[in-house]
Amino acid sequence: MRSALLLGRGGRILGVINWQNAIVLAYFRGNGTKVFPLDFHDFEVRSANKSFKVPSVLILTGKADRHPHADRLSLTRQNVFMRDNFECQWCGKRLTVANRTIDHVYPTARNGTNTWRNVVASCVDCNNEKGMMTGPEYEKVSGKRLRRKPFVPGRETMFRGYLDREGYESWEPYLQKAV
């Protein structure tokens, strides 16, 4: 099932929520949160006696228009892959579930940090070939260069990846506004 884009006042991107939470916010606002659906996915879910269109984009309009994690972008494997567009940053190969890993440009065993600026998406082959070398050492040995220097992504960078997926076309105007 698809997710929903959650916006704050003025169209600020707050995050992505699962379809179940989107249904609860759009139809059952029991906690007093003022939320309005702006767009819907092209399918419905059914309960025993009702049918609900699944929201694609929601906007919070009350005073508390903040998502609990709106200002923080967690360093997770999935977020690193999304930032790097599911491509190996050493060879450019498209990453799949079977061949993707995270590479520390400066290995943690050699005092590297586990931060956005030190991790990149990598294929298993490049990561194994690099081993305990630092990025610059690996560049000299292999002739490969990082395709893009690791960076701390903005929230809108992360959500742009959804535009390549089927069913998220309705998000485009909101994501384009944010970048």
Protein architecture, described:
With 179 residues, this protein is an alpha+beta fold. The chain is built from six helices and six strands. The protein has helices at 19-27, 77-83, 124-130, 135-142, 155-160, 172-178, and strands at residues 4-7, 13-17, 35-46, 51-60, 100-104, 119-123. The strands form two sheets. The protein has a four-stranded mixed β-sheet with strand order 2-1-4-3, sandwiched between helices. Strands 5-6 form a two-stranded antiparallel ribbon. Strand 3 (35-46) and strand 4 (51-60) form a beta hairpin. The two termini are 26 Å apart.
From the alpha-carbon coordinates, what is the Rg to the nearest angstrom? 20 Å
What's the main sheet like? Answer: 4 strands, mixed
Determine the strand fraction and express it as a percent band. 15-25%
Question: How far apart are the termini?
Answer: 26 Å
- The portion of residues assigned to helices is 10-25%
